[in-house]
Structures are given as C-alpha cells and as structure tokens.
Amino acid sequence: MGRQSSKAIAKTKLVLLENKEVRLKFEAESLWNEQPVVFYLLRRPGCILCRYQARELWDHLEPQLQSLGIRLVCVIHEYLQAEVRLFSPKYWPGEIYHDEDRELFKFLGGGKVRRACPLSAFNPFHSFWKEVSLAKTKVKEYNYVGEKFILGGVLIVNSKANGGEVLLTQVEKEIGRPPSLPDILSVLSQLPCAK
Questions:
Q1: What is the pTM of this model?
Q2: Which residues are catalytically annotated?
Q3: Which of 30, 55, 81, 195 has the most CB atoms around it within 10 Å of its CB?
C-alpha cells in the first residue's frame, strides 16, 4: 500500500506497559514526533506463532533500527497482565503498548478490526501448520488465553519532521502469516536516516 496520512491514528491513545505493569497513556503521534516508528501489532501474546514471529522480528530488525534511530514497538489489543509478563522480555524485550480502543488495528484493517477465519486450523496441509512446526523448535511455552482471531500486522510511520506519513501497512492475511521482512527493510531503506 502506498503512503497515506497518519492523521487517522495520530490521537490514538496508547498505554505504555512500563515494567509490564505501570500504565502511562500517550497519543500515538508522540511516538513519531522525532523518529520513524515500526509498530508490530500483535495478535496474542500467548500464541506460539505470535511469540515466535515477535522474537524473529525483534532479532532481525532491532539492531539495524537502533543504529538508524528508528523505533520498534509492539502493540497489543487486549491487556492480560499475566500474558504480557510471560511474553516480555523473553519474546519482546522492547516497548509494549496497549491500544485499548484497537484504533491501530482498525486502521490496519481499513476501518474495522480484521478477524481470522479459524477454518485453516482444520486443514492439515495449510501453511499454518508449517509455521506452527517451525515455531515449536523455538517456543516451548505457549497457551490459548485471550482473543484468538483478531489479526495484527505491521505499520511504519515516518517521523513528523519528514511528513509523519504511514509508509507501510502490512496486514496479517491469516493466522500464522509472518510479517515480510524484505518489504519492511525495503521501506526503511528509503528513509533519510538510512542513506
């Protein structure tokens, strides 16, 4: 998807889960005031695939992004304290925000929260099961607590000084579909701080 205005999500209230307990509220646009931000919108902290993909995304992107001054944050759509504690820092050592009204998830879904069709889990040949097998090699503890079918994805928003535009919306098309790292890196390589 091409560039679009971040105005629709600028005033979204995000709650920073500092120390995974203290809850400080921010408007989303404060995160991209001075630097670009990559938002990883997580489906569910206890999910085996979400834990695996979060760790992969962090391990592959964070070192590069930090050196470029680009922020990488995780956003959850429901706050279950025990789940967040089990998820962080093991699978996501960085900042985690709670989008109480699911505004970023709605933006990613074109105005509505997107939900997965659970039928793919019943097809033993679906790519979902290949991803689960791969995830099981790295994630030993997982659960089924919380809303299971809200889809996540990735949003990249440029810094306010460089227009504050949404540079990429990458929607999770179905459960288990990992974010495309090449697409993310391609967009990030075009930012002024990467040149």
A1: 0.86
A2: 47, 50
A3: 55
